[in-house]
Write a structure and sequence with these properties.
It is built from 21 helices and 19 strands. The strands form 5 sheets. It has a 5-stranded antiparallel beta sheet with strand order 4-3-7-6-5. The longest helix has 34 residues. By secondary structure, it is α+β, with helices and mostly antiparallel strands. 27% of the residues are buried.
């Protein structure tokens, strides 16, 4: 009867001795600390079991069970914790790992000082045996807790055993696995399965069977220095972490071990490299010392390397192998190229900074750099100070918003609207205020710049006031000289108008006997043409005056319709107008001039199409502009003439005067708009006119 308590007590001593022994070998090792903790739990479990089995009464059995219940409730998480620290690198207990211990603590506190999972105690020939209540919820939880811990431990050991690359590690994992497996099977069978099935009842034998595994650990510690990191058992792990490619060769120069860096360099896996002669991969045989070689990769290409070979001897000076370190020369070349590139980049950047500084301060165009967040002045050149009449003190801790430079606030809003859209302002005609409050005509440009994490704005101001004044004086001087040009212009437009009058009168002459209403309509059209001719003469007279015409609000559809009726009277040309839904046709301008503009475009299109075909008018616009596209399906304009057709006296037709499009351009410019020939249009000629809704 006393043999089982004695064996259990001896098992407790074995656990305690194994834990203290391994801990004494290396007190700093995390794995040895965990093994000591596991040994203490196992020894306390075994001591309590030995005293409980041999207890003189049932009360004493319960006393020992209750006093050391923490040992068997917390043994499963301690076991899993130990295997994790044994098989995983840099494993340490973190907050999420505390969840391992949570079920054990719940079971401990729920069943402490109670018999929730115990039915009774039975004394047999082998000593006291615990009869568990198999219907108890907490007993079922305890069985699940213990079984999961054992299963997880087996999975960890199996994965460790399968992932071992070196022979030594495989032997270590094998000893641990194949001693733990029978201990677990015997313990589970006698302590869990057989009691649940009720086949027979035995005292707790689990502490005795677990000594099989502890003895296996002791063998591993003795033979392989398991759990004690030393240069001998850590060599492979150390080599694996080295960035250089390292090989261990036997005395026949066959590969015994290769680290991941060498596998990456060659493209072969460690299993493909095992027991292969090193000469297979080299352009010439390996020799002692450092030698430049070519290393052949799996893909067939060769890479330049520098091989350093060192012979390994035994204590008797017998050669047992070599250690070879390969240095990839390509990396050195890439580093040198990168260093050279960075140096060149730094030199170019420095050169660019010098050029920018000189260009900034010596530029005749005024420049200022401000912070985009608070508009504080960062830099300003002398040209800008001269344009506005300020001295350099204005740039000291001042903001650009402190200076009233905008004549029209609408210009300021337009500039910052463009900048906020991520676009660049280029040569915008803007009137700015001098320090003495007189206006300056300028070409204004602005762009946002990002330097590091700072966003800046560069403003450029080109003072063109003198140029504009000179142009105005020249224009005044040329007014008398341009009378000949004006006479040609008037003759050109009067010719178009009188052609329409002649056509309508001809229609009236032929239709008079048949239809008086049609005659009246034709005569009305002729009268309308006469009124247009009268207005045109007035326009010529106004051209000789300094006073400008009055702007009026115009419906562009009405202007186009009037020009259409006059230009295409008695014509077979089909006309189509397209515009988007909700299109706003109103703008401010000079109605007679706009009529003259589109009259010229329509007459040109009619002549180009030989009074046949189709004319398409495309209307579009936004809040600021209206765009009119005039498209015909005639022969078109050769691309080489695209930049000349708006010049005075230039024409692609022999009978043309070359004045029509020149007049059109001058009218568009007077409205502060633009006109150009769309060279991408292939069906004929397409002129695109863009007019602002308000003329500044």
């Amino acid at each position: 009867m006393e043999c089982i308590p004695v064996l259990t007590f001896v098992s407790a001593l074995i656990y305690l001795g194994a834990g203290v022994y391994t801990f004494a070998k290396n007190k700093e090792g995390g794995v040895t600390q965990h093994f000591l903790l596991l040994s203490l739990f196992l020894s306390m479990w075994a001591f309590a079991a030995s005293f409980a089995i041999a207890a003189p009464s049932e009360a004493k059995v319960f006393f020992w069970y209750n006093s050391f219940s923490f040992a068997w409730f917390l043994f499963p998480p301690v076991l899993v914790h130990f295997f994790l620290s044994l098989t995983r690198k840099n494993f340490s207990l973190r907050f999420r790992h505390i969840l391992l211990y949570l079920p054990g603590f719940i079971l401990l506190f729920a069943t402490q000082h109670t018999k929730l999972i115990i039915k009774n105690f039975v004394r047999g020939p082998w000593g006291w045996t615990i009869i568990y209540d198999r219907t108890s919820f907490w007993y079922i939880c305890n069985i699940i807790h213990y079984s999961l811990a054992i299963l997880i431990s087996l999975i960890i050991l199996l994965r460790w055993f399968k992932s071992c690359k070196s022979t030594e590690k495989c032997q270590q994992a094998g000893i641990t696995l194949f001693t733990f497996l029978p201990a677990v099977l015997l313990s589970t069978a006698t302590g869990t399965i057989l009691p649940i099935l009720g086949i027979f009842r035995l005292p707790p034998l689990v502490p005795i069977f677990m000594t099989i595994w502890v003895i296996g650990i002791a063998i591993g510690v003795t033979k392989f220095n398991m759990m004690i990191p030393t240069p001998q058992n850590s060599a492979a792990s150390l080599i694996e972490t080295i960035h250089e490619s390292v090989l261990l060769l036997d005395k026949n120069l066959h590969i015994v071990f290769s680290n991941p860096a060498f596998s990456k360099l060659t493209g072969y896996s460690p299993s493909q490299l095992s027991d292969v002669s090193i000469d297979t991969f080299l352009s010439e045989p390996i020799c002692s010392g450092t030698t430049p070689l070519l290393l052949f990769r799996k893909e067939g290409n060769a890479v330049p390397v520098e091989a350093t070979s060192t012979i390994v001897y035994t204590e008797r000076k017998d050669e047992i192998g070599r250690i070879v370190v390969f240095k990839d020369k390509q990396i050195d070349e890439r580093l040198l190229q990168e260093i050279k590139l960075r140096k060149e980049t730094a030199e170019q950047l420095h050169y660019s900074e010098i050029l920018f500084t000189k260009a900034f301060y010596l530029s005749p165009i005024g420049m200022i750099i401000v912070d985009s967040e608070d508009y504080r002045i960062i830099e300003v050149n002398d040209a800008l100070l001269a344009i506005f009449g300020y001295d350099r003190s204005v740039s000291e801790a001042r903001k650009i918003t402190d200076f009233p430079i905008w004549v029209h606030d609408s210009d300021r809003r337009a500039v910052f609207k463009i900048l906020n859209q991520g676009k660049t302002v280029r040569n915008m005609m803007v009137a700015l205020l001098h320090h003495d409050a007189f206006p300056i005509e300028t070409k204004f440009s602005a762009e946002k710049l990002s330097i590091g994490d700072r966003e800046l704005i560069l403003f450029c101001v080109d003072d063109i006031s003198s140029r504009i004044n000179l142009e105005r004086q020249v224009m005044k001087m040329q007014r008398m000289e341009s009378l000949g040009f004006l006479a040609g212009t008037v003759a050109h437009d009067l010719n178009n108008i009188f052609t329409a009058i002649e056509g309508n009168l001809d229609i009236a002459r032929h239709t008079l006997p048949n239809d008086e209403a049609e005659v009246k309509e034709a005569l009305d059209a002729a009268l309308y043409a006469y009124e247009k001719g009268k207005r045109l003469v007035r326009t010529v007279l106004q051209h000789t005056r300094v006073k400008e015409d009055m702007q009026t609000k115009i419906n562009i559809r009405d202007v186009l319709e009037a020009a259409d009726q006059l230009a295409f009277r008695a014509s077979t040309v089909k006309r189509t107008t397209k515009s988007p839904s909700g299109f706003d046709p109103f703008l401010a301008g000079y109605p007679d001039l706009l009529f003259q503009l589109f009259m010229n475009l329509f007459v040109n299109a009619r002549q180009a199409m030989n009074n046949m075909g189709e004319l398409l008018i495309e209307l579009s616009g936004d809040d600021d502009t209206i765009t009119i596209g005039v498209c015909d399906d005639g022969p078109g304009v050769p691309k080489r003439y695209a930049d000349q057709i708006f010049d005075n006296a230039f024409s692609t037709r022999e009978e043309g005067t070359g004045l029509g499009l020149s007049i059109v351009r001058s009218i568009v410019e007077r409205h502060k708009g633009t006109i150009h020939l769309d060279t991408r249009y292939t069906r004929g000629a397409k002129f695109i006119v863009t007019l602002p809704r308000e003329i500044a």
